[in-house]
Amino acid sequence: MLIFLNFDGVLHPNAVRFEKKINPALDAPRHRLFESNDALAEVVANFTDLRLVLNTWWTYFLGFDESLRRLPKTLASRVSGSTLQHASFYQNLPHRIAIATEAVRNVAEPVLILDHADARYPAHILHVTLLLEPQIGLADSRAVQALHRLVSRATERSQVRRERKPPRKQTEQ
After folding, report:
1. ∠ at Cα 93 (22, 115), nearest 5°?
2. Tens digit of pLDDT for each residue in 113-156?
3. How far separated are the first and last CA of the chain, in Å rounded?
4. How does strand 23-26 pair with strand 16-19?
5. Is the Cβ–Cβ distance between 69 and 62 less than 8 Å?
């Protein structure tokens, strides 16, 4: 399973600005960047085949490697890619949600988009999204429970599909 992960509004409040386009600053009193890393790591730990795809502006401003360094090893080791590349790869500002929507469409395995409720995904993709309260994210235990439930269901369905595949016909020689 793949989880398309936005940092903002999920791992900390959706109140980040990039000073000089390289220094992330959180404009949310009594909160800190990546305050909900442990909550996500706890869910991820229960699913050995689960991988993360960074779907965040952090990769655009800081690059993939620097964004990855901001995560604890328990999460960083699960990251398999990113929807956005560094800003230097683009002539115009990319549309993060359109890129994620296209990526989800082209994936054969179960996916979940984990983002904040201010993100505007098209209706046809909402069935694979978990949109969180932008100023709380995974700091809400109900959101963590919902994430665990959705990942459990998706992995169970995936397991059933694999078990039901008919055996391959052997060719006669």
Report:
1. 75
2. 999 999 999 999 999 999 999 999 999 999 999 999 999 999 88
3. 38
4. antiparallel
5. no
